[in-house]
């Protein structure tokens, strides 16, 4: 009987020891880093610190005091949604992220557990663009990857990882999105888009040619030089006046008048010969 009681006591002790070793107080952990004081305060104000501390495996995408100011003045329920999307339900430290290769991975966040997420609002997209260049963003289709991984703050394998990111990740539907921070001082400004050169103004000769071309388009085409013009009067002569058809028919021609005169003369000569005979 005493042996059974001893075994139960040892089992309870080991269970308590394992629970203690995996549990953590996120408020105390972040309290050691003043640069994340505002982020830590918002976790406490929204009651998320207590919920996070009850989980055994978590990754927090922490924002420094300057970055968190862009959302600190929003309504408390909106701030809570944004912060819940900064809590990933898995362990990711910088070493594990570097092993991702050049690909994207979808991560489940604490907001997905609420049952209020619409579409992909409760998921994050983490993408490795190149060596040492990793970005985060909402997994909602079309959402930009706005938050860069800047480094590691806390790493307790495989329970707690706190990563420093540059910009709040605001999923579509959580309010106005936060733009990526401007480039650091000294960076060259983006090249402006080239302007299209205005076409040169036409010269006076080109304008005259255009006017002549427009005038020639409306004028009839001239006849060829060697083609005779139809019914064209001869140069220097006046064309005769036209006659009526009846007048032309009634007027005898010159040849018919000569023939008649010769016939009359022949008859008169014959009559004279007869009288003299």
UniProtKB/TrEMBL annotation:
Quote the biased-composition stretches of kind Low complexity, using this chain's numbering.
216-238, 250-260
Among InterPro entries, the record links this protein to:
FAS1_dom_sf (IPR036378), FAS1_domain (IPR000782), Plant_FLA (IPR033254)
Signal peptide (UniProt feature, chain positions): 1-23
In what ranges is there compositional bias, type Pro residues? 180-202
UniProt xrefs under PROSITE patterns = FAS1 (PS50213)
Residues covered by region (Disordered)? 180-260
Is the keyword Cell membrane in the record? yes
Please provide one cellular component term from the Gene Ontology annotations of this protein: plasma membrane
Q: Say yes or no: keyword Aminoacyl-tRNA synthetase present.
A: no
Subcellular location per UniProt equals: Cell membrane
All copies of the FAS1 domain together span 23-170
- Compositionally biased, Acidic residues: which spans? 203-215
Instruction: Tell me which UniProt keywords the record has, alphabetically.
Output: Cell membrane, Glycoprotein, GPI-anchor, Lipoprotein, Membrane, Proteoglycan, Signal
Main localisation, per the record?
A: membrane
Q: How does it sit in the membrane?
A: Lipid-anchor; GPI-anchor
Q: What does this protein do?
A: May be a cell surface adhesion protein.
Q: Which family does it belong to?
A: Belongs to the fasciclin-like AGP family.
* Protein name as annotated: Fasciclin-like arabinogalactan protein 3
According to its UniProt entry, this protein's organism is: Theobroma cacao (Cacao)
What's the encoding gene here? LOC18587610
